[in-house]
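Quick illustration, no need to memorize.
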Amino acid sequence: MHHFNQALLCKQVWRLLIDQDSSLARAFKARYYPTGDYWTATLGPKLSFTWRSLLSVRHLMQKGVRWKLGDGRRMKIWKHNWMSHTSCCKPITPAPQGFQESFVSDFIEEGSGTWKTNKIRSKFFEVDNEAIIKMSLNHLNQPDTLVWGPHSKGIFSVKSAYDFIHSLMITRLDSSKQLKAVN
């Protein structure tokens, strides 16, 4: 039952992320993260039960939400899950000094719509270079969009969230059993 409740909370967070112009999303933004977003909102005093509940599934949403590359202007290279060719969806290369807040668009040639390969090679490990340069830039005329990583088509549903949460818990239990067996 707990996993199902978490999946329902994830659905509400998904709605906040997808429809940021809704009255509910605007109200939460004004109250809890006026200068940031859901991902950077901090716990503080006098939080409503609803908001505290939505924050309680942030760690699950961070694991499930992915970005689909469009123009690269909303995706932060070292903060968002955007690399489809890697298991963790982010570069393993540490962010170089001065590049921590860089957007993916900073590494795309504006006129030609190609990757800035020299810049990429100078800032990333080889494994990240290859993964980034392999990524298609076919949708530069569209904004970046959020997709639900656990679903093959990127579509969020309570069922896919529940299955995802359940699989995370099974993986965690298996890992803990293996650790006990080693000891």
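The helical segments are 2-18, 23-32, 49-55, 58-64, 117-123, 126-134, 158-182.
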